């Protein structure tokens, strides 16, 4: 995979400082606790972009809970819920563009200004994030429709288990590919097709680790939403609004960067290899 980097060079900061963490796990822990206030700040700012989709999702969930007829449900989802959801998801994805850029600069030890850095991230990659917002929001709507249809399913237990299992696998692949593609599009100048292809390959190559990361991030936020309970939905919104977005991005930015170090940065962008981590005298790819 070849492409230009979006990172501004000539930073005055020293990324080989001996006080830097040696591993991504240590880096995540350090940033989370030492920069918690900054993570909350950018989370609240990004959450403003999520308010439309979360509000609409709550209203749609309440309305759908009163629908008893399958045809009426499908008609509402296709003609009303999904079109508005796609629009509101695009807005949310634009906010994610700013947050990914801001949090990546935090992990690299570079200076940040909440509004200026956030808006710079949006300016650099909003076009690709709009495209990904359209693509992934359509897929999200299809997943939501599939889960809605479970309420009306008359499958035998075995087929129901298989159906839920397939949805779970599909959801995992979707979340992993989406996470790689968003962090990648914020970091490199690549076309959408190349990003999705590379994201898919990384998802397959590290499938078990990707699954664990998905469970440790999105599992905490999405499970209450997928259950469909109004009270759990509110609880999930509180988590998302306070720290949930930054928490997921912080973990995925560092985890994805460890993969980019191995498959991209080591050869194509050596200046970015293990950036934000302590430079070892005899460091290998396995330590990335």
Number of helices: 8
Q: Based on CA inertia axes, which overall geometry fits?
A: globular
Strand content: under 5%
The total count of strands amounts to 2
Give structural notes.
With 288 residues, this protein is mainly α. The protein is 76% helix and 1% strand. The protein is built from 8 helices and 2 strands, in the order βαααααβααα. A two-stranded antiparallel sheet has the order 1-2. α1 packs across α8, α2 crosses α8 and α3 crosses α8. The protein is globular and about 65 Å long. 34% of the residues are buried.
Could you write a compact summary of the structure shown?
This protein has 288 residues and is mainly alpha-helical. It has helices at residues 24-34, 36-64, 70-107, 114-149, 157-187, 192-205, 207-227, 230-268; strands at residues 4-5, 188-189.
List keywords for this structure.
single chain, 288 residues, mainly alpha, two-stranded antiparallel sheet, 8 helices, 2 strands, 1% strand, globular
Strand and helix map with partners:
Layout: E1 4-5, H1 24-34, H2 36-64, H3 70-107, H4 114-149, H5 157-187, E2 188-189, H6 192-205, H7 207-227, H8 230-268
Antiparallel strand pairs: 1-2
């Amino acid at each position: 995979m070849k492409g230009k980097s979006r990172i501004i060079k000539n930073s005055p900061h020293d990324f080989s400082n001996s006080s830097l963490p040696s591993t991504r796990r240590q880096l995540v822990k350090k940033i989370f606790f030492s920069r918690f206030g900054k993570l909350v700040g950018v989370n609240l700012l990004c959450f403003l972009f999520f308010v439309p989709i979360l509000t609409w999702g709550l209203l749609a969930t309440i309305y759908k809970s009163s629908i008893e007829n399958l045809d009426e449900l499908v008609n509402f989802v296709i003609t009303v819920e999904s079109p508005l959801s796609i629009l509101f998801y695009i807005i949310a994805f634009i906010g994610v563009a700013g947050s990914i850029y801001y949090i990546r600069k935090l992990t690299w030890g570079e200076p940040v200004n909440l509004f200026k850095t956030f808006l710079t991230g949006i300016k650099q990659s909003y076009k690709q994030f709009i495209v990904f917002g359209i693509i992934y929001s359509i897929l999200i709507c299809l997943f939501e429709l599939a889960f809605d249809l479970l309420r009306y399913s008359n499958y035998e237990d075995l087929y129901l288990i298989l159906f839920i299992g397939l949805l779970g696998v599909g959801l995992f692949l979707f979340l992993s590919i989406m996470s790689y593609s968003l962090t990648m599009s914020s970091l490199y100048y690549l076309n959408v097709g190349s990003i999705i292809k590379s994201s898919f390959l990384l998802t397959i190559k590290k499938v078990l680790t990707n699954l664990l990361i998905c469970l440790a991030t999105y599992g905490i936020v999405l499970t209450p939403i997928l259950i469909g309970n109004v009270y759990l939905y509110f609880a999930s919104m509180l988590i998302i609004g306070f720290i949930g977005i930054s928490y997921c991005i912080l973990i995925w930015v560092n985890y994805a960067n460890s993969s980019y170090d191995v498959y991209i940065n080591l050869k194509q962008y050596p200046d970015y290899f293990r950036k934000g981590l302590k430079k070892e005298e005899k460091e290998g790819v396995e330590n990335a």
